[in-house]
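ok so for the tutorial part 2 we go from a plain amino acid sequence to predicted structure tokens. step 1 is just haveing the sequence, like this:
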Amino acid sequence: MHRRRPAVGPSLAAIVVAGVMSGWGAAAAVADPGPDRTLYVNNQSLTCTDSGPGTESRPFCSVQTAADVVEPGDTVRILGDYSMSPHPETVILTRSGTSDKPITFSGAPLSSRLKTVLATPASAPALTLKGVHDVRVESLTFRDEHHSDVVAVTGSDHVTLDQLTVENTAPTVPVTGTAIGVDGTSSDVTLSRNTLNPSTAYGVRVQPGAARITVTSNLIFIGQQGGIVVSGAADTDVTSNTVFAPCATGISLDGGSSGVVENNVAITNGSMQTGSCPAPTAPLYAVPADSANQVTADYNVAATARSSSGSGPARTEYSWAGTAYTTSAAFREGTGQGTHDIDGVTAYPGPLPEHSPLIDSADATAPGELSTDLTGHPRVDDLLVANTGTGTTHPDRGALERQDTLTIASDDVPTPPKGLAPLGISLKTDATSSWGAALTYSVDFGDGSDPATGTPGTPVTHTYSAPGLYHPRITFTEPDGTTAQKSYAGVAAGTAAPPAADLSAAPDTANGQVDAGSARFAVPAPADAWEVAYRTLQYGDGTQDNLAVDATETTHQYPAPGTYSATLTQTDLLGRTTTATTVFHAADAFVAVSPAYDTEKTIAAHGVLKLSAATLRADSNGVDAVQLQLVTGNAKASGALTLYAHGTTRPNTAGISFEPGRTATAETTVRVTPTGSVDLYNASTGAVTVDVATVGLQSHAQYADAYHPAAPVRLLDTRTGTGGVHSPVAGGHSVTLTVGGTHGVPAGADAVVLGVTATTTKASGDLTVATHGTGDSAVSGPHWTTGQTATAQVVIPVHDGKVVLHNESRASAHLVADLVGWYGSTANGSEFLPATPTRTALRIAAHATVKLKVTGAHGVPASGVTAADLNLTVPAPSGSGYLVAYADGGARPGVCSLNFTKGHSATGGALVKVGTDGEIDLYNAGAGPVNVSADLLGAYEAVPAG
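step 2 — the prediction. this is what the tokens look like for a chain of 946 residues:
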């Protein structure tokens, strides 16, 4: 099966803080020392480790690890993405900063599209600040799935919790949790600009004994117990909060608390005043007698949501010193407090509608009042509303500030947007303020030139003198500093000529193997890459992909071996195109198979035996050809077997020749498809029995081996002592031959190709070639009759560099083994190209050599070919001898490719190294001329470097 390699490199846009997980390592963190560091937490990073330095490239996996090593002045950046599921993590911070070097824990800012998400466990708060001082925690989101305590401040001082979010659905049963809690031993704590959704019973809860607590500009949704509940805390400022409290108390100070309650908006909802609320008549503001003389309240609002409906009971707006007041007027008259309070208005915990009485009506001097609202927008003066508050900055009441709407004309775009440099453009400057404010503009043209400034209405012009892609940005500003910006799609000042395209391809390799039918295309970044709009790669097989404009690599699996012309078309921003083309030879790699005789059948005269791909073990991914060993016997007449893919025209070739009274052996290659069959045609006038074994597969879609043809060399000759054996091998005995680690064959080769010969035979018999150390991986070598010299080429797997030759005869024979090649590592190897089976008829005189051209036709490339896969047949020779096949241009080796005996046809496979001219030489070592049929089955070409 085609094995895909794992992708590398995480997506940095999809990171979520996760809980401490097993397997992250037990060693202590070793954050690099240094002043004012930034430590990173990112548990989705492939390089995260809790025993590492906490850098951006090697972040911590857990927040707790950072909390355990953080020092004064450090910032902990917690990377996260709201779209992914967080894991529970209980974080306890016990380390403090100093007044001039506070510690900061920060997630994604409000301006980011991401959210750093921590989940709340059921057993403890997600975050506890325990006995710390000078600490700031900001921009974190907490997913409260258990409706339990979320953030707890205990025994701490000079702490700020800013822009935190607690989110989850409202509970449907009574709960007791608190979103943000401050215990009685804490002081100087600021809770600002937090958004607390109704997952807990309490929004903010301050315990007795706390002092100098500021709760400001928070948006709190609460349904059960209370929005902001302060008990027995001194000097507490509750300012500019918006609390949606449909049935519970919005803001309460009791237990002897002291402080100021100003600029807050508490909102009820009449339709929710039913039995589903724990206390449907609870007041919006509550200060009992134990605190009434120490609390000042003014500029607050008692409002009803715009979506109110129904006729629930009248809501008590105030409970002050034990007396209930249903209106702000009654509250003022009865207490002297709330001089500027408002009621009888509609409001909702969202942006204020224009002309709302909440606009520009707050006390700018209230303790804890911020210069920005919940979302970070400035407190500004609405020019359409009279200023009825106190102070000069004119803030709105509640957590949200009404902002001016600046509208920039939709057709305000650079004209023309593209052209050749130097390029002159014009840009409109039309914009309006919903408040009618006088605007000014500033245009940054993005080329380093000084900004152009002015008042809206008059177009501004600019010339881009140098080629480039520029992004102008216009900023409109109100007198109070409110701004609106618009950035434009790039202005393209093009080069005189479009960027050139470049493309190259090589087979896909991994772990020393090659997927010879998968091309790895390299597309470098063009010069002036900014100018390229898009690129399309057409693979030459009817498919295509769009590519990024920067340097990229992409792989493509071709459907079959063949020559494909791939074309990269590159289109620039001005619409001009350039192309680059490369040719890729999709080929096959060799899959070693432990030989096993898969079938034994008798084929009638002129009959056809169909063998399925499954029978031949060729039904795996992308198999195009199988290498088979054929052993024939019981022949009733002389003849030959022709092998070919079922459904194709039968070629005029032979896989093996046979005759009565003799057993014949030959290896051959035949094309196949995973869903097709192979036909074996018996060209004889009599029946013949054949044994078929698969010795290898050729696949274009699997990572497998490359072939390395050798200049044929003799490894064993018992006649001369080559290979260490100096005498015939007795019948029933074996010779172990080392092939790995010698003559250029590496010790780790997966299979070898050998030409094996038996000669000076004393009785009929045959030779078995087996993988050393195994009992189930063996092929049949040559079969012979008494006195016959017989040769066969075999492919045999190796695992320790050795093979075993076993003489199956009852009498001795001299054995010869020649190295033809080996299969293994891709480096400097070759891949297989199936060819259209083609026969070439030759006549070779005694002791003569003929040349055979094997390249440039029948699917074989004209160049780069390293070896040819042939079947050689000598029909009924008039004398005995042998053929030597070798690369043209080199010296003839002292080896044998095919032995033949007078009057007996011989056929054998021959993997032959090819000369640089694309030719092989065939030498007739016999004493008389012979006819030779050379059947071309395929070829090998060098694996391109990549």
